[in-house]
Amino acid sequence: MDGIHILICASQVNQIPFIFKKGVPTQNIMATYSLDMQFILVWAGWEGSAHDTRIFLEAIENPNKRFSKPPKSIEK
Fold it and tell me: pTM of the predicted model, to two decimals?
């Protein structure tokens, strides 16, 4: 899993929440992939100021995102 910031073009009014710590507007994109380099999930569109941990927690807690998780263990 990796997060990357991609530069975006937006009007000055709309780019304010997307300003990254370096002062440029970006989108934070999270991608997860398998060991054989196949994408499992790509989630784009987060504001540049969003931290990677915030995006990851939203991905695993939101059931609509269908983030791949290991099966729940069966207790005996």
Answer: 0.55
